[in-house]
Amino acid sequence: xSRTKQREQLKNxxxxxxxxxxxSLGRNNLETAEAVINAGVKTIQYREKNKTWRQKYAxxxxxxxxxxxxxxxxxxxxxxxxxxxxxxxxIHVGQDxxxxxxxRKMAGPDMIIGVSTNTVEEIxxxxxxxxxxxxxxxxxxxxxxxxANPVVTAEAVSYALHKCSIPVVxxxxxxxxNIGSLYQQGFRFFAMISAIVSQPxxxxxxxxxxxxxxxxxxxx
Length: 220
Ligand code: 3NM
Fold this sequence. Notes:
Layout: H1 3-12, E1 15-19, H2 29-38, E2 43-46, H3 53-69, E3 73-77, H4 80-86, E4 90-93, H5 100-107, E5 112-117, H6 120-128, E6 133-136, H7 154-162, E7 168-171, H8 179-185, E8 189-192, H9 194-197, H10 202-218
Parallel strand pairs: 1-2, 1-8, 2-3, 3-4, 4-5, 5-6, 6-7, 7-8
Helix pairs in contact: 2-3, 3-4, 8-10
Family: Belongs to the thiamine-phosphate synthase family.
Keywords: Magnesium, Metal-binding, Thiamine biosynthesis, Transferase
GO molecular function, one term: magnesium ion binding
């Protein structure tokens, strides 16, 4: 699939799964990726903080290939060199990773680039610098990220919903209990680790999340 099509797909697909092996109930990242792909999720991010470059490269390359075969967009977390080396479609950078302009310069105009944001200022800067989407959170407290920021403020939520011209992917503590209310608030894209990869049955977890979104759609 072309990157142009993938950019379009990002705007149409509500669910964004993030892989993290320590949270995957004993499955390895390839097994989890396969289950997530089979569940129909169209965006997958590889996020490992404690593996070596070589391990990340090996896993990332294999998952990128699986994603390519199934029309799934594959995003590498943090590192531009790994994203390029693995043949990822995109990179997700945090506020402490390579600045977007540098990442763009290294990765080229075609690479999808997402940026983690927590404040109005960070969203504003990411848009100005040409991000394709922002990750925005944490929406709720989360156990999955050790150094998570404070939960986003009402002011930042309002800016994200009404002033941000690129897709806002809500993240942090999103699960079946709250995805519907986030949808009703105006969020359309949802990134999750535990509500997807920590579930015993990933396919039924994803189906349930989709159903909750569909129900909320009818009430907005
Ligand atoms: N980034 P879960 S919160 C990876 O706020 C990540 O930028 C966050 O995991 C941010 O869905 C987070 O299990 C963890 O809460 C998301």
